[in-house]
Amino acid sequence: MEKLIITAALTGAEVTREQQPNLPITPDEIADAAFECAKAGASIVHVHGRYDDGTPTQDKEVYRQIINKVRERCDVIVQVSTGGAVGMTAQERLAPVTLKPEMATLSMGSVNFGNDVFMNHPDDMDIFATTMKDLGVKIEYEVFDTGMITTVNRWLKKGLITAPLHVDFVLGIPGAMAGTPEALMYMRSQLPAEASWTVAGIGAAQLPLATMAIILGGHVRVGFEDNVYYRKGELATSNAQLVERVVRISREHDRAVATPDEARKILGMPA
Ligand code: KMH
Ligand code: ZN
Question: Do 132 and 97 form a contact (C-beta atoms < 8 A)?
Fold first, then answer.
């Protein structure tokens, strides 16, 4: 089986220090967490910008600092968020992509997101996809519900997006698709041929869905953006602790973990 790509979603836009005291917020903290996760076995870090007071931001300068500081520490693939936080404009959200990061996310539709609505107008999605393609940024398609994987297939057929595709199933957001084994199996059955996939299980779904992905030949995303606990009632001590657990499970299944360069190769990215 192909080596396992582990993505560490370090910070997100919604989690607070009150919920997770070890949440990395500043560019230095995010870069330190990225280094620790890379050392533990992550080959991609998914990053969100925050101002020092914790407010989410898509400020290009904040992302520039994050990318540079991660680069100073290690060779992990930096994937910037274009989801940002609920309520941001599409233009705001796209700003970090102009830094030409190695990779960026692209949400494939609108969805209820807890008590909010995460808006992704098709026209904006089109602009995001075109901009990333023009700038040579590898896209990770974020799929929160069934209609979004249908859209990935439709866009591929129309030639709006091109292979090789890498899809992230984000399962367990209240308002979107459930974080269950059945949901993952359905999503996987709808993937375009040859596409690679990863799964980000939210909350308690993180560990079971990660385990499934290891067995099924998919890839795994863990981290505080999606889940702040190690187990029920016990907060994780760091993002790296969550990565280390996935590495252990994968090795027990005789599935080796990809280095950043191996991940680039698997995803069809330049070395
Ligand atoms: N913060 C969510 C509303 C992404 O990073 O691309 C969207 C999100 C997706 O986190
Ligand atoms: Zn995100």
Answer: yes
